[in-house]
Specification:
The structure holds 2 protein chains of 2 kinds. Helix content of chain A is 41%, strand content 25%. Chain A is of the alpha/beta class. In chain A, a hairpin with a 2-residue loop joins strand 11 and strand 12. In chain A, helix 13 runs parallel beside helix 14. Chain B contains 3 helices and 4 strands; from the N terminus they run βαβαββα. The chains are: A alpha/beta, B alpha+beta.
Chain lengths: 568, 112
């Protein structure tokens, strides 16, 4: 939309003056509203919201833009008209009392009128002119002027007069809405689009697969750029709003900042400490694997940080979600009470996709959340192309606004991707797959990151448990027999522990053996040493005896020589 | 054209004392307006002499009266009395049909 607006601004200098309708989205797609001072034609089949559109244009004019209006009704009486729009929150009677609005009911009963000779519709001009002058009207609605065709026999006169009427409206400088009933092969039953050639809007209420969607298209807007697609629009207790979903393109700014997931273990697995801000996250899984719990954890963490979170619940009522989440220690009620969290719950079958998107877009614009949880997208049933188109637009809206969006999706079975999953897989920046492992008479939950763009994320399968303190991730045992979870994992861990103890004992034994051997060896060494010492001692003694004997022998010889007298 | 033949039979043994109160709406002094006024006066003089009143309302002067009588086309002749209320639009050029429209003549006599 911003792009459209920028585009519009570049033309502002020589653009047509426009009159805002005050209808959300409509002014965006027509780049300002209806052409000022010109008649515009709103056509469509019965019950497509022409009258409400026109009335909204007048009421907004009177209340918000200070432009008074005249509603000339050819079908409904004034009190009926006023009563019909009370449900939209419009107090038409008060506006009439304040002279901001005039409702003139033109009643033509063909049976009461005889046509004799020439006539014209000057009476209508006089009435309209008088009403415009009375309240100083800038806006006029003629609903549905084609009713005149059933009131008068001479259509030649009628056509000429209508042509004159539209020219006259232009001269008066009022911005007019003329409504027309859709005809066969042409926009209106009597082809009055021929005369109102400046701006033609087509309204449509189509029923597809038993779900009706209101759509609007700008067929023609002379002298102005405009959105050319069919846009869904809503009529509810907040009035009329159009959803001009232009594809946001792929030019949105990205943030390197992580948003914590609310599950500590998952933050770790993502490497970065969370999802990227403004990214789209898909949590897919089988029934009962805890998808909503991941969504709620994410929402809880966001609210805890002081960020606003919008939660679209398509399967459970808000109260049910809050009660269930309490069982895993997530208290969402306090966030709702604090205004940080808002639930919007609706059955998917309540509206068509377009309508859901319109509603979601409006809620996003009003609440301005930084976190969005859509739980679950698999609740949408229908042609995959349509689901894809809807989700791609929702994802684009969120990305443009920097909203981190978490979608949950129910998988049909382990092998098959569901229709909605397949169609959105390429849209998602991070995809967490939850699955369960059945073994040994129990079922355990396991998650892994199927993908996470731009992150050095973990490739591991991790078991997780939903505890009283939220989601807790546990290292999964991955061994030769595959992934073991739950008690099998515990048993395996016990076995491993036992084996460890045994190994430790063996080591101890070896260590003791070694010590013993060493001691024995040392003892032997000591013995040998002792033996050698004994031997040494003996040898030393023998040597000493020998030496002594030598000395004694020498002395003996000397004594003998002396005795013989040889020494003097 | 009009499907006169479908209309219920009316008793045309008209009370000659019946007062006719007619109002003719016009806008300004256009040829169509003046023609209608002249035509109406002539018809009334011929057929309702002495027992009719004609009120000409110029909506350019009193536009607020247009909504009250549900005026869309001009000129419009409204028969306020006798009841029921009748409306005839056009410049009243065909006197015979005006008389039928005002229940002064039975429609069987109309030559188409």
């Amino acid at each position: 939309m911003t792009q459209l607006n920028e585009f519009a601004h570049s033309f502002v200098a020589h653009a047509l003056p426009k009159t805002p309708t005050g209808i959300d989205g409509f002014d965006d797609l027509t780049l300002g509203g209806l052409p000022s001072g010109r008649p515009s034609l709103f056509c469509g089949a019965a019950g497509c919201g022409k009258t409400l559109f026109a009335m909204t244009f007048l009421v907004n004019g009177a209340v918000r833009f200070g432009e008074h209006g005249v509603f000339m009704s050819f079908e409904e009486r004034a009190p009926d008209l006023a009563a019909n729009v009370v449900s939209l929150g419009y107090d038409v009677e008060r506006l009439v009392a304040e002279k901001k609005l005039i409702i003139d009911h033109v009643h033509i009963e063909r049976a009461e009128i005889e046509e004799i000779g020439e006539y014209d519709l000057e009476g209508l001009f006089v009435r309209l002119g008088h009403a415009i002058d009375t309240v100083g009207a800038k806006r006029v609605v003629l609903d549905t002027i084609e009713a005149l065709f059933s009131g008068f026999a001479d259509t030649t006169i009628l056509r000429a007069e209508l042509r004159r009427l539209f020219a006259w409206l232009k001269d008066r400088g009022v911005t007019a809405i003329i409504t027309g009933e859709r005809g066969d092969g042409q926009l209106t039953r009597y082809g009055i689009e021929e005369y109102v050639s400046d701006c033609v809007i087509l309204l449509d209420n189509r029923v597809q697969e038993q779900v009706s969607t209101r759509r609007l298209r700008v067929v023609k807007y002379r002298g102005s750029a405009h959105g050319t697609n069919e846009y869904p629009f809503l009529i509810d207790d907040e009035g009329v709003s159009v959803l001009p979903i232009t594809s946001a393109g792929l030019s949105h700014a990205v943030s390197p900042e992580p948003v914590p997931t609310g599950v500590a273990g998952l933050d770790q697995m993502l490497g970065l400490g969370g999802y990227y801000r403004g990214s789209s996250v898909l949590i897919s899984g089988l029934a009962g694997t805890g998808k909503s719990t991941f969504g709620a954890s994410f929402a809880d963490a966001a609210c805890e940080r002081g960020e606003r979170c919008l939660y679209f619940a398509f399967e459970e009522s808000p109260d049910q979600v809050m009660r269930n989440m309490l069982s895993v220690g997530i208290d969402l009620k306090r966030h709702v009470a604090a205004g940080m969290l808002r639930f919007e719950a609706a059955r998917p079958s309540l509206y068509g996709f377009e309508m859901h998107l319109a509603r979601m877009n409006r809620d996003i614009e009003r609440f301005e959340p930084s976190i969005l949880v859509v739980d679950p997208i698999s609740a949408f049933r229908g042609p995959s192309a349509e689901i894809h188109a809807t989700l791609i637009r929702l994802a684009d809206i969120c990305k443009t606004k920097g909203i981190t969006t978490l979608f949950t999706s129910l998988s049909g079975s382990k092998e098959m991707m569901t229709e909605s999953e397949r169609s959105v897989s390429s849209l998602m920046d991070t995809w967490v797959s939850l699955t369960d492992v059945e073994a040994n008479g129990e079922r355990n939950r396991v998650l892994y990151l199927l993908k996470s763009r731009g992150m050095n994320h973990s490739n591991q399968l991790r078991e997780f448990r939903l505890t009283n303190d939220g989601v807790i991730l546990i290292d999964a045992y991955i061994g030769p027999e595959g992934v073991m979870t739950g008690s099998a994992r515990l048993a395996q861990e016990a076995r491993e522990r036992d084996a460890g103890v045994a190994r430790q004992q063996e080591t101890e034994r070896l260590r003791r053996e070694l010590a013993r051997k060493r001691a024995a060896t040392e003892r032997q060494i000591a013995e040998l040493r002792a033996a050698i010492e004994v031997e040494e001692a003996e040898i030393a003694m023998l040597i000493e005896q020998e030496e002594n004997r030598e000395t004694v022998l020498g002395a003996d010889r000397e004594a003998i020589a002396t005795k013989r007298g040889a020494i003097r | 054209m009009m499907d006169e033949n479908d209309q219920p039979e009316v008793d045309f043994t008209e009370d000659p004392t019946l007062e006719h109160n007619l109002r003719l709406y016009v806008a300004g002094q256009t040829p169509k307006s003046l023609g209608a006024i002249a035509n109406l006066k002539r018809i009334c003089e011929e057929h309702l002499a002495g027992r009719y009143t004609i009120e000409v309302v110029d909506l350019l002067v009193t536009p607020q009266l247009a909504a009250g009588d549900q005026i869309v086309a001009l000129p419009t002749l409204v028969r306020r009395l006798p009841p029921p209320l009748k409306r005839i639009i056009g410049n009243l050029a065909d006197a015979e049909r005006v008389l039928v429209g005002l229940d002064i003549k039975p429609k069987a006599t109309v030559t188409k």
